[in-house]
Amino acid sequence: MKKLSLILSCILLLTAALAVSVSAADMFVERELTPIVSVEEPKGGGNHDIYVINDGVFGDTDKEQYDTYCARSEPGEDFIGYTFPKPYTVKAFEFTEGNHFWDGGWFEMGTQRIEILKNGEWSQLDGVSCDPEYPAGLFQDDFGDPFETFTFTFDPVECDGIRIAGMAGGQASFISCAEVRILAEVPDDYVVADPHGDALAAEEAAKAVEEAAKTEADLAAGYITRLFTPSTNIDQPAGGGNHDINVINDLDWIGEGEEGVDKRQYDTYIAATEPHEVWFAYDFGGKTYNVTSVEYYEGMLFWDGGYFSDGLRLEALKNGEWVAVNADSGYPVSANSEDHEPGGQVWTFSFDPIACEGIRIIGTAGGEHFFTSISELRIKGSEATGEEPAAEAPAAEEPAAEEPAAEETAVEETVTVEPVAETPAAAEEKSPNTFDPAIIAAVSAILSLCGFASVKSRKH
């Protein structure tokens, strides 16, 4: 019994020794958290994705911030922060503002406060200090430079969520935020998870597979458009359409007469005051293709534009120059918007096949504000091949190149065995790092207490 008691004491001492080397660390954990905000559907020019506040980008533009602008008719309070998937012991709340505007973008008159979530209820946290001190003002000039970082610190507190709250400032009563970081106590060697990032990566991978399948089907149907990137001479539009020109090559076009789908089209609205030409093109990257068909899918029509006023022309890129193609699509030649209704029609150019290095449609922008709209631009054709058999000969004589290729492969195989040398390092990473000299000494002492002696001191 005495021996058993001694062994138990040894085990307890060993456990205590191991526990000594397991330390806590301070780490920013916001990637694991769920962002929350008082205004979930803002109407301002900022990024409308709340996850912009924990993307690690502190930024200096409206799209790298989230603001709560919602055209309030009277003052209101706002908050922004996180809820946790499990309780965390939090030590600091780092708040980076977004932009400041003439009508808001801050907490006014020092009303900002840090609140924590415990047992399902939010309450104000006491004993909070801020570095630098957050301004107490009413107007834009009172708040200094935009995108400034304020760090709120306090005694460590365990909670289920944390946020900054207060009276939203400015005439429009709203706040702005570029980033919120949460410093918490975690075990040593803790790895912060990123569930939102993982979900986005999985979504992107699935989208890539889907896009590849769409491209393959489109190529099988004779269309070559997905092999190239579209371009236009109006590459910085200011209208309500999609500002990414690739929208005209996404195989998602507007139906005839369809409305309220601005983001599925590209329009060239730039508040123009004079007529000007607009073109949409595909450059084949120096290769020659035999083009047999061009299809222009219109976007929406508007009271002040969205169409070509003097008809639509087709041009081909030949030897580095754009030349007119004798083609007809039946597109109306009219500056009257009624002659172009409804929107979303498809206009197909008919012409004899032409060998070229690019294709574009071109015309004069119509309407009071002189702009056009487009939902999709598709081209049928095939890559031109040399007619002389001699041009194909090098590709046909593959056996002659096999021997050098095998030599190169052998070299590559020799190189690939090098990672084996990294095995010890990998083993080091897996080995526990808690057995430091202090523990070894503690274990030796315990073994001595238990009556164990070294081999050298044992007598026969």
Write up what this structure looks like.
Helix content is 18%, strand content 28%. Helix 1 (2-20) packs antiparallel against helix 6 (437-449). The protein has 6 helices and 20 strands. The protein folds into 2 domains: 24-193, Jelly Rolls; 225-383, Jelly Rolls (Sandwich), CATH 2.60.120.260. Strands 1, 2, 4, 5, 6, 7, 8 and 10 form an 8-stranded antiparallel beta sheet that branches. A 5-stranded antiparallel beta sheet has the order 11-13-19-15-16, with no helix packed on it. Strands 12, 14, 17, 18 and 20 form a 5-stranded antiparallel beta sheet that branches. The longest helix has 26 residues, at 195-220. It has helices at residues 2-20, 195-220, 393-396, 402-416, 423-430, 437-449, and strands spanning 24-28, 34-37, 66-67, 77-96, 113-118, 121-124, 129-131, 149-167, 176-177, 179-187, 230-232, 266-267, 277-283, 289-298, 313-318, 321-324, 346-349, 354-356, 358-364, 373-383. It starts with a helix and ends in an 11-residue tail after the last helix.
Count of separate structural domains: 2
Major sheet size, sense and barrel closure: 8 strands, antiparallel
Please name the fourth-level CATH homologous superfamily of the largest domain.
Answer: Galactose-binding domain-like
Query: What integer is the average pLDDT?
Result: 84
The geometry reads as: elongated
What is the CATH topology descriptor of the largest domain?
Jelly Rolls
User: Helical amount among residues, as a percent range?
Assistant: 10-25%
User: What percent strand?
Assistant: 25-35%
CATH class of the largest domain: Mainly Beta
Name the CATH architecture of the largest domain: Sandwich
Radius of gyration: 34 Å
Distance between the termini: 28 Å
Along the chain, the helix and strand elements come as HEEEEEEEEEEHEEEEEEEEEEHHHH
Total helical elements: 6
Number of E strands = 20
Low-confidence stretches: 1-22, 388-460
User: In oligomeric terms, what are we looking at?
Assistant: single chain
The class by helix and strand makeup works out as alpha+beta
